[in-house]
Specification:
Layout lengths: L2 H13 L4 H9 L4 H7 L6 H26 L23 H15 L3 E2 L5 E3 H4 L26 E3 L7 H6 L5 E10 L10 E11 L4 H16 L5 E8 L2 E12 L5 E12 L1 H6 L8 E8 H9 L12 H4 L7
Parallel strand pairs: 1-4
Antiparallel strand pairs: 2-3, 4-5, 5-9, 6-7, 7-8, 8-9
Helix pairs in contact: 1-4, 2-4, 5-10
Length: 323
């Protein structure tokens, strides 16, 4: 192959849309054009071999220089100072975290202690100490996730699992809230396997359902930014007696109204107080529990609870749009 032919073939390689590495292999690889030409030098007469070798080395240097230009084009600036800047994306607190912070702030102003508890708990703390006896039908309503290899231990199905350990390490008067994750095997537009609750407890020598009602009316008004009508419906919870479901009269964007179930509450069952080491004849208590994910949905106008966990920017930015 003549020097002119080699040069033209290398120019064709350089002009191709291939990557720089692909061009390097085509010219200088084991089967590349220049490598093949260098192998053929041995077939030339001695007087031509030296001249051809010098020409090929010169072409090789030229080819390498051209490859370097494609990797680091010196004729183009590395930074265009006249180009408009890229505005940064401003982050915000996750709607669930914002809902938790909002609730914690309200209850903190009312003198409630905020505590946390383990997410893996014993059957005693999650069920039996709260008046869920082993054969209690209420257990069937909670599809529990058990811990493999640890009989009697489970992922807590409710923040109520913190009640007994927390009460047992405190002396009345007691008032605390427990926000945190809970787990049940369920998933649809209003349920997910991992969700967030907030448990609230008050224990003193004189506490009544009237105190509980006034507290919840104040909390709901503060939380949603306006007074709202509440409806207390008699209900059954193993750990409270009497018990009630609390509905709020919700005004939809079109102006129509409907009742929405918001939380559960009641007076703490005497057996629960006794399991926590308190004299049920001397002390009374009230408790309430609410689903923070659903509260976040109402607060930020989210229709499907699963949207909160899909990492969508339009969902995650909702809390930044509410003062």
């Amino acid at each position: 192959m003549t020097i002119t032919a080699v040069t033209k073939r290398l120019e064709t390689i350089l002009a191709s849309p291939s990557s720089t590495e692909e061009k390097r292999v085509a010219g200088l690889g084991r089967k590349g054009i220049l490598t093949e030409c260098l192998r053929e030098l041995g077939q030339l007469p001695p007087d031509e071999r030296a001249k051809a070798g010098a020409e090929l080395n010169k072409i090789k240097r030229w080819f390498n220089d051209e490859l370097d230009k494609t990797e680091r084009p010196l004729d183009k600036p590395l930074l265009d100072l006249t180009a408009p800047g890229v505005p940064p994306t401003i982050g915000s607190i996750h709607p669930i975290s914002a809902a938790i912070n909002r609730a914690v702030d309200i209850f903190s102003r009312l003198g409630f202690e905020t505590i946390e508890g383990p997410e893996i708990v014993s059957d005693w703390d999650n069920f039996e100490s709260l008046h869920f006896h082993p054969d209690h039908p209420a257990r069937d309503t909670q599809d529990t996730m058990m811990v493999e290899g640890r009989p009697g231990w489970l992922l807590r199905t409710q923040t109520s699992a913190v009640q007994i350990p927390a009460i047992a390490t405190r002396k009345p008067p007691i008032r605390f809230i427990v926000p945190g994750k809970t787990y049940r095997k369920e998933s649809d537009a209003t349920h997910v396997p991992m969700f967030h609750q907030l448990e609230g407890v008050i224990i003193d020598q004189q506490v009544s359902f009237a105190d509980l009602k006034g507290l919840l009316e104040y909390f709901i008004a503060e939380y949603f930014g306006r007074p709202m009508r509440l409806r207390f419906r008699p209900h059954f919870f193993p750990f409270t007696e009497p018990s009630a479901e609390v509905d709020v009269e919700w005004i939809k964007p079109d102006g129509t109204k409907k009742w929405l179930e918001l939380l559960g509450c009641g007076c703490i069952h005497p057996e629960v107080l006794q399991n926590a080491g308190l004299d049920a004849k001397r002390y009374q208590g009230v408790a309430f529990g609410l689903g923070l994910d659903r509260h976040a949905m109402l607060l930020y106008g989210i229709n499907d609870i699963r949207e909160l966990f899909l990492n969508k920017e339009e969902i995650l930015s909702q809390s930044a749009n509410l003062s």
